[in-house]
Amino acid sequence: xxxxxxxxxxxxxxxxxxxxxxxDEKVLKAIRKVPRELFVLDEYRDxxxxxxxxxxxxxxxxxQPYTVAFMTQLLEISPRIKVLEIxxxxxxxxxxxxxxxxxxxxxxxxxxxxxxxxxxxxxxxYEVVQxxxxxxxxxxxxxxxxxxxxxxxxxxxxxxxxxxxxxxxFMVIPIGDKSTQIMKRITxxxxxxxxxxxxxxxxxxxxxxxxxxxx
Length: 215
What we know:
Blueprint: H1 3-19, H2 25-33, E1 54-55, E2 61-62, H3 65-75, E3 82-86, H4 92-99, E4 103-108, H5 111-124, E5 128-132, E6 145-150, H6 159-163, E7 165-176, E8 181-188, E9 194-202
Parallel strand pairs: 3-4, 3-6, 4-5, 6-7
Antiparallel strand pairs: 1-2, 7-8, 8-9
């Protein structure tokens, strides 16, 4: 597929996201800027800008563009805030956040995916602090975080992640069973008080770890 066709399809995708309710122009601008074709497997390159999830290595997926945009919009990003991403995956979401001028910290439990993402993030020149670990326990060294984004399906809100939220910060996380989840935004109001908002239904791969599902 040539670059002109990719560009045309990217523009069409951004228009469709706007029509589906993505109104944050900063999010749409980042999606226009970050080349999703770099993150999909070669055999799916001609489907890069379809609004669909696509298969990735290690039986994982790169999320549907609408899902990425929806979650990012819920984060209400402002420049230089600290964002912890649980589940680096392909690295695409990390780069969207970095393009929006966030300080991004990202945890991936699968070593092959960690290296897959790291290569692509570095190729694009974004600064993302990465590690291989159980994301459900967070990253206490760099806490508190203004935002936490969980990109896999959790059975409940991991308590270590809630404890690493800054006061006034919030976590966006899909919670439910392994077949379907509700997207939630949990705001830390005080040290012990949290407020939860519920949004649409989604389907993610399971969040594996001490505070998630067993493998």
